[in-house]
Amino acid sequence: MPSVSYPTPESDIHFKVFKVPQWRAAIYQFLSVRLWGSLPSTLQRRISAWYSSLYTKSYSKKIIGPYLRVNYSDKNYLQKFKPPDGKKEFTNFQDFFTREFKELPQNKSAYVWPCEGLLCDMGSVMDTTISNVKGDKRHIESIFQVHKTSIPGDYHFINVFLHNKNYHRIHAPVSGTIRRIQHVPGDLVVLRPWIYKQNPSLPALRNERYNMDIVDIWGRTWYLSIVGGPAVGTIALPKHITVGSKVEKLEEIALFYLGSTCCMAAPEAPKHHFKNSFVQVGATY
Asked: Taking the domains of the chain in order of start, what are their residue ranges?
């Protein structure tokens, strides 16, 4: 059994699944995919990098206090974290966004959630098909950039959307060895799943991402795709995270600078979570 307990989705009073009318979702999707998505990827990245740079300015530190009061019911929320890169204090909003755990969650389970956010999509790999545009059917393997037969059909696909307020570091869901790291250039269309209705994983097909395969001690591959979105200045991997490296469960493997999504195809099914529930780093997968 896990050595720590985690709140259920209902215990996070600020967690909610947004209900967007179909007509409004269609407008948002048009703006994201057709207008913003039609810009060259290089221009999207330049605009996103400029936008994210605003949060590195010293004046952005003033946002942290009000942001905490609006988004967290726990007045001591920030006490669990420390500023990044060995800093003594949070000097700007980006420092808050890239906050680090003072102590990693402890859990005896062999498999844990690699990130925090909304579990917006899940299902068996065999049964999950993603449509990018009308008449263009794409499968889960397109996200991870592997051959259609590479991921067993009985694997389980999950997509976790990281809201801006969520913790934005990605940790290893299992102990094992990194067998592949692949950078996939792409767009930075909006990630928010409620504007894509029945197709919440659509942005993962076209957005810039890092794909990473971890082979566990039983020889099974866990496929991860770390997906960027608008305002993401960069996705950073720790220097020691390289092909052939061994990682321990809950070891940090990636960091986002603003909005993101984490997809995974795993040999195990989630045991305690369901679609549109809230997941936390280190909770039993």
From this structure: 9-279
pLDDT beyond 90 at 46: no
Mean per-residue pLDDT of the chain? 86
Among 201, 190, 35, CA closest to 132: 201
Phi-psi region of 284 (alpha: psi -120 to 50; beta: other; left: phi over 0): beta
Q: What is the 3-state secondary structure (H, E, C) of 33-96?
A: HHHHHHCCHHHHHHHHHHHHHHHHCHHHHHHHHHHHHHHCCCCCHHHHEECCCCCCCCCCHHHH
C-alpha pair distances (Å), 244 with each of 137, 167, 169, 212, 221: 34, 27, 21, 11, 13
Phi–psi pair at 196, nearest 5 degrees: -105, 5
Q: For residue range 219-230, what is the model confidence (pLDDT) as tens digits?
A: 999 999 999 887
Cβ atoms within 10 Å of 126's Cβ, excluding its own: 14
Can you tell me the distance from the alpha carbon of 209 to that of 69, in angstroms, rounded to the nearest whole number?
Answer: 32
Tally helices (H) and strands (E) across the chain: 6, 15
Intra-chain end-to-end CA distance of the chain, in Å:
12
- What's the distance, CA 176 to chain centroid? 20
pTM of the model: 0.88
pLDDT value, residue 135: 55
